[in-house]
Design goal:
mainly alpha; Non-ribosomal Peptide Synthetase Peptidyl Carrier Protein, Chain A; 6 helices; 47% helix
Length: 129
């Protein structure tokens, strides 16, 4: 199955938001990307990409099989996986979310937006716009 709307996600590692380079170039971390975002949409997109990559790896499915407009539970995400996502958001993105946020019936993109709004890595003025 070739999903052209998700082809930009090919080659993303779990904690990066830049495609992996064949020459072995260092991948850009989510923290580096969030440090220079200029608006909340840009931050949400970066977090969506990182979250999709992480869920694909955790659930052992191809990146192309994860549709960011669907709910996480539609990919078999249970409360234990939700706890891992909460811990990842806190550690990597400095965002305090809870398991109920992850398990809520909202699309992955909406969860990423929620994570972005609560992230201490994103300047306050960007989060409040």
């Amino acid at each position: 199955m070739d999903r052209t709307d998700l082809r930009y996600l090919k080659g993303f590692s779990e904690d990066s938001v830049a495609p992996s380079d064949q020459a072995g170039e260092q991948q850009e971390s989510i923290q580096m990307v969030l440090a220079r975002v200029t608006d909340l949409d840009e931050a949400s997109e970066a977090i969506t990409q990182a979250l999709v990559s992480r869920v694909a790896k955790m659930q052992q499915v191809a990146l192309e099989e994860i549709d960011p407009s669907r709910f996480l539970h539609s990919y078999g995400v249970d409360s234990l996986v939700a706890i891992e996502i909460v811990n990842w958001a806190l550690k990597e993105i400095k965002s305090k979310i809870n398991v109920f946020d992850v398990m809520a019936g909202i699309p992955i993109t909406a969860l990423a937006d929620n994570i972005a709004r609560k992230s201490d890595l994103i300047p306050k003025e960007v989060r409040e716009d």
